[in-house]
Amino acid sequence: MTEFLNQFSRRKFILTAGASAGAVFLKGCLGNPPESAGGGGTAQPTAQQVANISPEQKPETATVKLGYIPIVESAPLIIAKEKGLFAKYGINVELAKQASWGAARDNLEIGSAGGGIDGGQWQMPMPHLITEGLITKGNQKIPMYVLCQLITHGNGIAIANKHLGKGVSLQLAGAKSLFKELKSSTPFTAAFTFPHVNQDLWIRYWLAAGGIDPDADVKLLTVPAAQTVANMKTGTMDAFSTGDPWPFRLVNDKIGYMAALTAEIWKNHPEEYLAMRADWVDKHPKATKAILKGVMEAQQWLDNFDNRKEAAQILAGRNYFNLPSAAILADPYQGKYDMGDGRKIDDKSMAAYYWKDEKGSVSYPYKSHDLWFITENVRWGFLPKDYIANNGAKAKELINKVNREDIWKEAAKELGIAAADIPTNTSRGVEEFFDGAKFDPEKPEEYLKSLKIKKVSI
Fold first, then answer.
1. In terms of domains, do 281 and 225 share one?
2. Do residue 273 and residue 407 come from a single domain?
3. What phi and psi, each to the nearest 5 degrees, are found at residue 184?
4. Is 417:289 a contact under the CB 8 Å cutoff?
5. Which SUPFAM superfamilies match (predicted)?
6. N or C end of the chain: smaller count of CB under 10 Å?
7. 207: domain range?
8. Residues ≥6 apart with Cβ < 8 Å to 99
9. What pLDDT, on the 0 to 100 scale, is given for residue 1?
10. What's the confidence (pLDDT) of residue 7?
């Protein structure tokens, strides 16, 4: 644990992110007030104007401040705001764009009363690490609750064009000699947006599945999502793992190509989540369910593919993603990916989903998925292995504190969601990856034993 805290202290993260991303991101990283986003230029109805709810469901407060990062994972929050779905349930949500995940973490620490945020969009397992005080200032424990999953898919691993035709693709067997050659001179440099979480774990899994040790054979960097394309243009990195629209922009700008979609690495995988400070939720249980109801309706709206052209236009707006064209989002939203290396994907099952996918509910926060993220943290030495000893007893104890699937179910029932769409088991069961590895949430130690490349000895 001491090694974990020393290696990834808050100070080191800020220094690393600052060196990689430039001074433009320091405002958010140092915990200054986040930038508020009012929407696509249209006046939004207030909660008081729209709400028509029963007295027993009336929120304890009409206001909340949620943070987001400008990638497609944030779409349910933005659509719920723009379509008046939060207001419909009596809650006025202020959305605050975060400069980086470090900024989001800092702003959560101070809370909205101090100019920060009450919660928002998170990579996993950030809520668990914050709850444990592992990535906070002074290792302060700030209990958080995971309330729902926001999305599946929508991520990819992008590669600089100089590596075209060299075997750097989904399967890396043909590129081992390249990585070995680069290691002896200028190592293959790959970036993610925050250490120990989704995008770090996706790129590590991809490399390790191809026989490349992410800690020994490559150089890994932390770079905020919005800076990834600029860094690739300057040639300072060879690859990055992040969410749409940034990988597609790389292809669109002819800077690089896509080696893999995360949908190819793990079909229907868990992605980012809505999570909030536990003290806010405990104080405002009805307001919390109002937020969830707005998000759930937005997720259903987004899963109607006929709405996705409009969704792309809203997200691309200056106040949100600030993209030069909504077309950068429109094709991926339909499962159409020009991978930039001659490969084209036209498969709706590979698109981002928000409410339901081929395996069932996307929105419901399965505890078994939390366990996979924690198990991968153990795999790479970010957490001690006692978290997954005895079939993950310690990890499951933490998950039971953080994951509030019970609140999701309450909100779903109040919303009138069909019983068939409300999971009855907190585990989605055994998960399978593109390399044939299988994760059984009842046997996390066996999963780690089956993996050839890992930092933990087990």
1. no
2. yes
3. -80, -10
4. no
5. Periplasmic binding protein-like II
6. N
7. 153-263
8. 24, 25, 27, 28, 29, 34, 35, 224
9. 44
10. 41
Give tens-digit pLDDT for 136-187: 999 999 999 999 999 999 999 999 999 999 999 999 999 999 999 999 889 9
Structure tokens at 451: 């993996």
Considering the chain, what is the average pLDDT of its residues? 89
**Among 123-132, 156-165, 361-370, which stretch is predicted with the lowest mean pLDDT?**
156-165
CB 70 within 8 A of CB 225: yes
pTM above 0.85, yes or no: yes
Let me know whether 107 and 256 are in one domain: no
How many folded domains does the chain comprise? 3
Residues 450 and 418 in one domain: no
Q: How confident is the model at residue 46 (pLDDT cuts 50, 70, 90)?
A: low
Where does a domain end: 263, 293, 314?
263
Predicted pLDDT at 234: 86
